Amino acid sequence: MKVVVVLILVACAFWQATAVTAPLTLLPDVVEKGAVCLDGTAPGYYWRPGTGNATKKWIVHQEGGGWCYDEDSCVGRSKSRLGSSKYFPKTMSFNGLLSDDCTQNPDFCEYNVVFLPYCDGASFSGNKDTPLEWKGTTLYFRGKRVLDAIFAALAEHFSTAEEFILTGCSAGGLATYLHADYPPTKLPSTTKYAAIADAGYFIDALDEQGQQHIRPQYQYVFKMQNASSGVNQNCISSTAAEDQWKCFFAQYTVPHITSRLFALNSQYDTWQLPNILDLHCLPPKCQGADEKAFEGWRGTFLEAFAPVMNGSKTTGAFADSCLTHCQSMGGSWSGYKIKDKLMREAFADWYFERPTAEGQLIDGPYPSNPTCPHRESSDDGMHYFV
């Protein structure tokens, strides 16, 4: 066991030493236009330039990191790297879909990667004109303006894009659904474009007790952040004013997306189990009613996932049964399989429209997938045993 640990540490150290880092670029000039983080500081981005034949091919990743669900939590968030650029690291390096290691990411390793650090608290969607004064702190809900400002700053580069992929995981995965149709409005009509949303298909579902656990939080954030202009506008225009909060959920947004879209999500997402189902155990520690709730969740999720499973060639999916959350940013990208097809192969085959593409891969129920790591629950339901 000690040898295995040493080898893993050496491998990680080697990757960290050889991965190309991306420097931070801040945008102080956009502050006067109101494009700011929660605390009023300037937004920014990280850019690792493309190489080889991919200098005009782009991946833009929207960082995840949850939401702040009320004013108090937004105050706390504004004093961290998820709410203030004062705490952004100076450089970043990437793995998974964003990796420059062509052995792990053979199809996209040479692409330009732009990483959007997340500092608005609501998936780049807020657009509230008036700052909020709350218990001695000024808060700005301006995520959509931050997104606009970054795209404007890179407009000259994007104007020659041959390919463009929008992505993100968790809150950034939800942002990918919300903004899937946004990049094509800023790109040449000839650009090959698609969006891949990782772990952002948070569903509008009842909790284990049959109560609305997540919906009231989404409704509150939608109003607090004034997000109606920062989500899919086809969804907004097709939804009654009192129900426009639904456009914050992927299941209600996907039917209105016109761009090519690939949904990457676990059917047993380990954020959704405690935060939507309100289930605080994982197999084999779920017993009785908890075990029944866990087993029933897959059906609930797949019912909400139906807009993705529409049989269209423009919509792809990889919905595994691993107990996990974000998957495109780490070893899962080159490790997890459905029907003997790696996650990265499933996306690349679909994106490049290869003859081997299977479109929508839906896994069987837990624990049928042998490529998933073994996990057991801890007190917070989120502990790994690999």
Structure characterization notes:
With about 375 residues, this protein is of the alpha/beta class. It has eleven helices and 14 strands. The chain has helices spanning about 1-20, 70-75, 145-155, 155-160, 170-180, 215-225, 235, 250-255, 270-275, 290-305, 345-350, and strands at about 20-25, 45-50, 55-60, 90, 110-115, 130-135, 135-140, 165-170, 190-200, 260-265, 315-320, 335-340, 340, 360. It has a ten-stranded mixed beta sheet with strand order 4-1-2-5-3-8-9-10-11-14. It has a two-stranded antiparallel ribbon with strand order 6-7. The chain has a two-stranded antiparallel ribbon with strand order 12-13. Strand 8, helix 5 (about 170-180) and strand 9 (about 190-200) form a beta-alpha-beta unit. The two termini are about 10 Å apart. Residues about 1-15 and about 375-385 have low confidence and may be disordered.
Topology, element by element:
Layout: H1 2-18, E1 22-26, E2 44-48, E3 57-62, H2 71-77, E4 91-92, E5 112-116, E6 132-134, E7 137-139, H3 143-153, H4 155-158, E8 163-169, H5 171-178, E9 192-198, H6 215-224, H7 233-237, H8 250-253, E10 261-266, H9 272-275, H10 289-304, E11 315-320, E12 337-338, E13 341-342, H11 343-351, E14 360-362
Parallel strand pairs: 3-5, 3-8, 8-9, 9-10, 10-11, 11-14
Antiparallel strand pairs: 1-2, 1-4, 2-5, 6-7, 12-13
Mean pLDDT value: 93
Q: Provide the β-strand percentage band.
A: 15-25%
Tell me the number of helical segments per DSSP (H or I, 4 or more residues long). Answer: 11
Give the N-terminus to C-terminus distance in angstroms: 12 Å
| pLDDT < 50 stretches | 1-17, 376-386
